[in-house]
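Quick illustration, no need to memorize.
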Amino acid sequence: MVNYLRRFWICFVILLVVLPVAAQEETVPYLPIERITDDPLEVTDFASDGTAVLRVVTDAPLACSLVYGKTEDFGSIAVDMDMAGGAHSDHHPILSGLEPETTYYYRMQGFDAEGNLYLSDVMTFTVPAFEAEEVTNLASPALGGEIVGYSSAFGDAEPDATWGVDSAFDGSANSAWSSAGDGDEAWVEVKLAQRSRVDAVAFWSRSMSDGSARVTEFTVTTDSGETYGPFSLPDADEAYRFDVEFEAETLRFDVASSTGGNTGAIEIGVYGEPVDE
């Protein structure tokens, strides 16, 4: 009788645990993410700072994330650095902390507004060897550039944090400086290591999936008070370079027009040669 009762209570406890899980699985369907995208789920844009991106467009808006790690236990998660909030269709989660010549496991996953969970298979990618690239941007900290002022940073981010102003000069396409809603009033000022003869400037605008945050025109003002531009940016897909001719030690970049919101830059460049002193 005692053994019978013991077996009864064991079965009862198992049912208490299993039934809620089974019920939850019925209300949260697991669907292959390939149903709502034709894009390959490939990690690309590997950068020497240990970052990479997975870009994919889904037919249905999803709140997406990507889990990854050196084993199938994963351990790291990447999300869209968008700030738009909620579900959307244009995804670009940024992976960080990647080691060169290392294989990682990853899986893409996301919820839609109906509570459906979409999952990909577990896949792998291998980080290539990072090649040292010559730094030619005079505004880069690697060449002595120093940020001396800026309008704001999203979430009051410190310069070296996510959305911090350092990201506009770090040489990585996978990071960006975002202002805190400055729109056309966003600006950043950088001091070069020494007075230089500048023959080109470059600007790569950030943008958000809702169309906001894109810089469409910017100007450059030297420490002698001369302003150049406005220079027009056709899109936020890449850095655009513009020929100029002046000497300066300090340059201020101002947003002249934009689509509003959290404007900022993925990269800002200054190119030329230091003036012999």
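Helices lie at 2-27.
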